[in-house]
Amino acid sequence: MNRFWCFFFTGAAALAVLFCIVGSGPTYRWWFPGPSISPLGAQIDDLFYLILVITTVTFIGVNAILGYVLWKYGSGKPRRSDFSHGSHTLEVVSSIVTAGVLLFIALYQMDVWYRYRVKSTFDREAVAHPVAEVTARQFEWRIRYPGPGKTLEDTPQPTDLYTVNDLHVPSGKPVLIKLRSEDVLHSFFLPHLRIKQDAVPGLVIPVWFQADKTGIYDLVCAELCGWGHYKMRGQLTAEREDERQSYLKELSKTQFDDGVAEKEKSE
Amino acid sequence: MSTINPTALTTHDHDAGHAHVHYEIGFVRKYIFSTDHKIIGVQFLMTTLLMLLVGGSLALCVRWQLAFPWREMPIIGRLLFSGQGGAISPEFYTMLFTMHATVMIFLVIIPILAGAFGNFLIPLQIGADDMAFPTLNMLSYWFMWPAIGLFGASFFVAGGAAAAGWTSYPTLSALPQAAPGSGAGQTLWLLAVTFIGFSSMMGSINYLTTIINMRAPGLTLFRMPMTIWGMFITAILQAFALPVLTAAGAMMICDRTLGTTFFIPGGLVVNNADPTIGGGQALLWQHLFWFYSHPAVYIMIVPAMGMVSDIISTFSRKPLFGYRPMVYSMAAIAGLGFIVWGHHMFISGMNPALGMTFMVSTMMIALPSAVKTFNWLGTMWGGNLQFTTPMLNAIAFVSMFVVGGLSGIFMAAVPVDIYIHDTYFIVAHFHYVLFGATLFGVFGAIHFWFPKMFGRMMNEPLGKLHFALTFIGFNVTFFPMHLLGVAGFPRRLADPYNYPYLEHLLPLNQVMTYGALLMGFAQLLIIGNFVYSIFRGKKVGRNPWNSNTLEWTAPSPPGHGNFDILPIVYRGPYEYASPLVEEDFLPQTKFLPTEDRHIDPNADPH
Known about the structure:
The structure holds 2 protein chains of 2 kinds. Chain A has helices at residues 2-23, 39-73, 88-117, 124-128, 241-256, 261-266, and strands spanning 132-137, 140-145, 161-164, 166-170, 175-181, 186-190, 195-199, 205-209, 215-221, 234-239.
């Protein structure tokens, strides 16, 4: 019966590892929603995998030791324990090694964070010409684009274009949006780009990202914003610059169409 | 498990041995408004176990919605939501997870550790006859009830209970028009948390005073069991962190009722109401809240670490590996705990430079946790392991704490946290720490100290069955959450499958819900075992586990005033397998005339 508990604990750990391997595979796809389509996101993935390797090795190591201890010292055979109060040397050595690894992880990550959030590192062109202002409100994303040929101003302009839940950005270059909230906290989450930033009422937060692959991606609200939080779904369309321009033109046409001009022309 | 050390003295001797006069007290003073720390401890234990059932039921409702969204919920659906086909509403869902977390944190984990075991064990393990302030102690229990009442009542006010998450981030929580649950329910929630705060603060002052002033002769600080160190450090954390939460709660109540705007910026149009008037800052709440609630995370685990250290040493029949490093690492966790709160706010919009400093301090707090794990394994290494129910739960604590600790490294790394923040990865992490570690520690502690509480043993086979089922159910429920998090599955969504990239995760969620049901039903075993054993368990003497600490020298259960013989302490709490004695344990109170004060650790055991 004593051996049973050794198998119980080590078996659970082994199953956990097996579960990760099988679950993350192509059959179940319980893993990242595809490879990151942004360069910064790819770096975040790399950091994730680095930590995953370190933690997996630690996890297996600790469980191997636990399994050994339970096997060797839990056999149920009568024995008198070693009378030992610990080892100062072991304690110091293990602490220094652990501290080293942890510090390495912390310092190694700084750069990606720095480039993601510190404004002085942002692409100058993207900062000078933000593509849109995204205002989160219960339970939708309101998007304000500058009119064709204009630059986004802090305050709404008569030429601005508006949509809801449909953010179009040019692909293949860094873009910057200005993130605001009109009511409560929301969070601007682009899982396929590994981008997330809370929208805070009262603040305007610049967020930059770069979608290298054209396509339509989910825009998720990741911060509880009320009863309808779950349905605050938007989409990000990454497209070639010319496609985006024609989209904006189309948008402009619909928005400024008073329903009269066309009719008069046809008459 | 053999029972030695039968009661040497009868209760008659006990009464005669005391100089002060005992007067008869009535039932109400003895069992309800009691000032006896043991009764108060048991009151806390019973209450928190009851609340564990409430919190667990709320969790099962959450799991139902995640596995079978918008399908008729068994029993509850028909009673509450007959108008919508028995499916729960999204606003009710937000209430469910808010109140699940609230109940589990404020009414279960914190009071079961500090309230139940702190109360029961502190005087017994330090050789005192009661707490320093017995009446304050009684009040600390009774201040919990207004909180329970307010939380309960909040379900019945217009709009229902609080639904802004247990973190209650403004402006969702500060503006009544922001959500149904942000009406009167939120105000009641804030008041209830304030009551809990008072309760904890009274306990904290009491524990600090008692531990500092009332230790038995010879019980120096570094002879205290780890449980007492855990309680002591927790009490310090509470004393310094809690006022911040209480103040923040008061500010929020003012925002909600008196028209102040600490947390409300101006010009917000919420739910088409008139624009708000203000000049406050929503992020301020997050700083204040986490300044308390991050240390609170340690309040929720440090006492369990202490109890598990005691249990592991006892059932390894071996001294604790690295006693002082264990104490120092606990102190380090507590100290660093005050400078890591910002890691909850990496993507909140605070100054990014802060993110870097918080990342370094957060990584560093993993170090003392690693030291502790290392020492628990070191304690078992070379021991003579006895797989009793408390020991199994304690090993599970270590095993689950490893998972929770390692997953913490992912979120401490800011860039990775950008992606996994507010996903199920976080949910997995804190359940591994709070349930996997703390609650298994608590289950271990219940089985371990039950004989001291009631003078009877809990049923071992039933205890083991409960442990195995809970362990399996727990891991089936929570381990897959790591993968959900990596898949970008956000928390707190009533219907995550609304997003196409999450649709394929539904079957996995159904498996997890079955795991949760298994875990939920397994708790009936411990409740049955607990109640049955109070009346029918095997009677035991003072020291059924052959343990060293002071509480095992008192009668089981101890009478009023605890000790029939004043304990005098001669050594540390973990002298198992000492070469000085024949048996494999050496109680702290046992006087050895021949004792050499400098014990050679390399001495040949005989």
